[in-house]
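WARN  no MSA supplied for this record, continuing single-sequence
INFO  ligand: S-adenosylmethionine
INFO  echoing inputs
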Amino acid sequence: MGGPFDKLVEAAQSDFDAAAHKPLLQAWQGLPLADIRRDLTQRLIGAGIEEGAEETRFLLNHTLAPASLAQALADPALFSWQQAEALAALSWRRLQRVPLSQVLGNQPFWTLDLAVTADVLTPRADTETLVEVVLAETGDAPACVVDLGTGSGAILLALLSERATWTGIGVDLSDAALAVAGGNAQSCGLADRTRFLRSRWGEALGDGAADILVSNPPYIVSDVLAALEPEVRDHEPTLALDGGADGLDAYRLIIADLPRLLVPGGLFALEIGYDQGEAVSALAAEVGLVAIDVKQDLAGQDRVVSGRRAVA
Ligand SMILES: C[S@@+](CC[C@H](N)C(=O)[O-])C[C@H]1O[C@@H](n2cnc3c(N)ncnc32)[C@H](O)[C@@H]1O
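INFO  complex generated
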């Protein structure tokens, strides 16, 4: 004990009380894994986490790897006291309503497995609609994609993973988010086709920088933020969420610059809130963008506004 590895673990947990999870560990002392599983599920549900059983399975599989939960339930030798301690530390954070993605450190998006920290929005399944819209509108011709507000890099990396001839620029105002996105580009094997840039939206980009421009900007009405789930309100970056008094602040800035940023005929696709289709389409029409369309997500809610810069 006390070696360099312990120091690393300590540093990683320094924002939390290192002993906070100990009561959980004590409660589990001497219990078989099946009972610990039941206890953790009930604690998570009691903390307001509806998917407590499913999340327990994720936490256990993460802790037990490379063994699976099924294997460890069948063979008690596969669950050590050190693993119980690691499980207690992770579970304690989740019980404080830290998002599961941040507790586990990763989140699946599209076909990718992305690192997630408190500095980036956890990529949402709804955002895959935007990826689908862009893929449906394009072919294999080489293109440069600009992703404004790239966060974890989710949209940009998903698109580049599907189109081997495309290159991309991920833009964010947050240096910490850009570091996460850069790491994800590396781990997805896409670093050689991506560049990351700190900029206030498209300000640092030249005219015609984008054949395709995508963005999932912050679009939550400021007054609504306080009513969000604790996972979002207390643990995701406000910079990724707050869309101003009517939720449209970022769209006004981004759309005003689209005719400059896009090449003639270039495609844009913006994620929107379920009730923002009309307002965002109107902003796009005001600056002369064409072929404006609103697409729905799998739940049937308006989710993406797309269109093009006119050819001439
Ligand atoms: C809703 S998150 C989207 C993250 C990621 N694209 C996704 O879909 O999961 C919005 C992102 O925009 C970034 N952002 C907010 N204001 C910005 C600005 N003025 N310029 C550039 N990026 C900004 C935030 O840091 C955040 O990463």
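The radius of gyration is 22 Å.
INFO  checksum written, moving to next record
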